[in-house]
Amino acid sequence: MEFSITVGKDADAEVPLGRVPGTTRTRWFLYGISNLGVVVVLALASWYLLADPVTSPWAFYPLPFNAALFWAILFIVFIGFNTEFWGIDRIPQPLRGFVIICATTVFAVVVTWVLANVLGHFYPSFAASRDGGLGYFASALFVLFGFATWVMVVLNWMHWPWTKLGMKQPLIGLCEIASMMVPTLALYLVFGLPPVSESATTSLMSVDTVLGWFYSIVVAVILTGQTLDNWPWRLFGGGGRTALASLIGNVLFGTVIYFLMVPLSKVLVGSAAVHELGGAINQFPAQIGVCWAFWMIFWANAFGNKPTGFGAAANLTVRTLVTFTLGIATFLGYYYFAAEHILHEPMVAGALYGNALGFIDWLVLWTLFYVVGFQSFGLGPLRSIEPSRG
């Protein structure tokens, strides 16, 4: 199953993503690389304008830029995956893509401003005036838990139980958004808010551990639901059994990923940086995880989630290895080169620069904008279809 959703009835949406009728020559790699080029160019151009510490005329970096970015991605999850672009899919391209960008921008900016300036007026933990933009971060941390809950009900639960009840869109998506608000808010109040609150005296874990652990659960959701075609949860028979299995399984699997990623992080950043980071090293599973998540999302949507023509075990294994390898390469390239020399971000520790939860998530957002929202507008001639396999 792909993270993308086929929407609309225009020429680009008549066939599945990455295919054109009547062609047999495989051009999926060229199509994917072209998408990558467009996304990177759009991400860099908008970064230099809005966030770059050197070139941007505004002082949005790192906050409130990152806060608005997180809310923007969550909004795409709401309208694109929970409600499957209901209503928006009737708009022809490229106007549809511009509508998605405009609606997302308005939502992200308004929510970020209201939480920091209205809610923050009554609850200082969310105030825009907190040092280092911590008030923006405190409210945006809610989105971390939403990435797990609202994505899981689509990728792993397959919109259960709402489809079983005979519902249609947009009611399915609205019910998902409303029903998952309660557990998402509960997770945030228990795990997320205490370590960043001005008034809380104790917390279950540090904010670095919260980031690392829960983002590892997000990685488990995307990996199993998208890259592995909902394996192994689909083996439980669908419906409520699959939903329960994925809920428990993703928490356990994500925890395993976290404990594997911590020592891997230490190897990748080096002993000097580990010493300088101290407890902050516990958030680096999220830093690696966002790089891997970007490639899992991009690989499914722009590269057709290849391979698809081998046996199931081979398909899933190769996808996992390819996306993970690309994720590690992206992590190293970002922290040791791009963040300093291309994005002009400040040093973190040792030879490390930047924060992958910023720019790499910016790449994720532009992937959702262009590849999903615009349906790779302008790249239609590169779409191809492979001969069917027996």
Can you tell me about this structure?
This is AAT family amino acid transporter. The chain crosses the membrane at residues 28-51, 63-83, 95-116, 136-158, 170-191, 211-231, 243-264, 284-304, 316-337, 357-379. Keywords: Membrane, Transmembrane, Transmembrane helix. The protein is mainly alpha-helical. The chain is 61% helix and 1% strand. It is built from 11 helices and 2 strands; from the N terminus they run H-H-H-H-H-H-H-H-H-H-E-E-H. The protein has a two-stranded antiparallel sheet. Strand 1 and strand 2 form a beta hairpin. Helix 2 runs parallel beside helix 11 (356-373) and helix 7 crosses helix 9. The longest helix has 31 residues, at 239-269. The protein is globular. The model is unreliable at 1-24 and 385-390 (pLDDT under 50).
Fold topology:
Elements: H1 28-50, H2 65-82, H3 95-122, H4 134-155, H5 171-192, H6 207-227, H7 239-269, H8 271-277, H9 284-302, H10 312-341, E1 347-349, E2 352-353, H11 356-373
Antiparallel strand pairs: 1-2
Helix pairs in contact: 1-9, 1-11, 2-3, 2-4, 2-5, 2-11, 3-4, 4-5, 4-6, 6-7, 6-9, 7-9, 9-10, 9-11
